[in-house]
Each structure stands twice: as structure tokens, then as C-alpha cells.
Amino acid sequence: MSEYDRAMDNVNILKSMKDNPKIRLYKGYAVVLESIIRNDKENVNGGLIQMLSDYKKVRALKHSPEELFCVPVV
């Protein structure tokens, strides 16, 4: 199995968990990682925007510096 295939297998695992509320913060990771693997710059940006949006919705981060600063995106 090639590195590409292994990488896509891992992305597909992330994508299959998209409806799990415990990982809602990580939905954009699959988009970003798949887009990097496919060299799709436009969708990388879309995934990063999704990650920023999802991050702001996390209640535990409300009224904290992390609400405005998404470390995973950086």
C-alpha cells in the first residue's frame, strides 16, 4: 500500500466520524488533510475556515483567548 493510500485511509476514518458530536471540532481536519494530499489549495482554505468556525462554537472556549485563537489552524 502506498503512502497516498495510507493517508487517504486515515482521512476516510476522520470523514466517517463526522456525525460524532465528540469530534465536531475536527470535521475540518478531514477536509484540510484530504485537500493537502490532493494538492487542492482552495479546499485547504475552505477546511481551515470551517475549523475556525467550529472552534468558535465550543462552549468550553467561550470567553477565553482560545475562542479567538484556533491553535490547531495555526
Helix percent reads: 55-70%
Cα-atom Rg, whole angstroms?
A: 13 Å
Q: Biggest sheet, in brief?
A: none
**Broad shape:** globular
What is the helix tally? 4
Q: What is the typical, i.e. mean, pLDDT?
A: 85
Q: Give the beta-strand count.
A: 0
Q: Low-confidence spans: pLDDT under 50, at least 5 residues?
A: none
Order of helices and strands: HHHH
Q: Please give the alpha-carbon distance between the first and last residues.
A: 31 Å
Tell me the number of structural domains.
1
Description:
With about 70 residues, the chain is mainly α. It has one domain. Helix content is about 60%, strand content about 0%. It is built from four helices and no strands. About 10% of the residues are buried.
Summarize this entry quickly.
The chain is an all-alpha fold. It has one domain (about 5-70). About 60% of the residues lie in helices and about 0% in strands.
List strands and helices in order, with pairings.
Blueprint: H1 3-16, H2 27-37, H3 41-56, H4 65-68
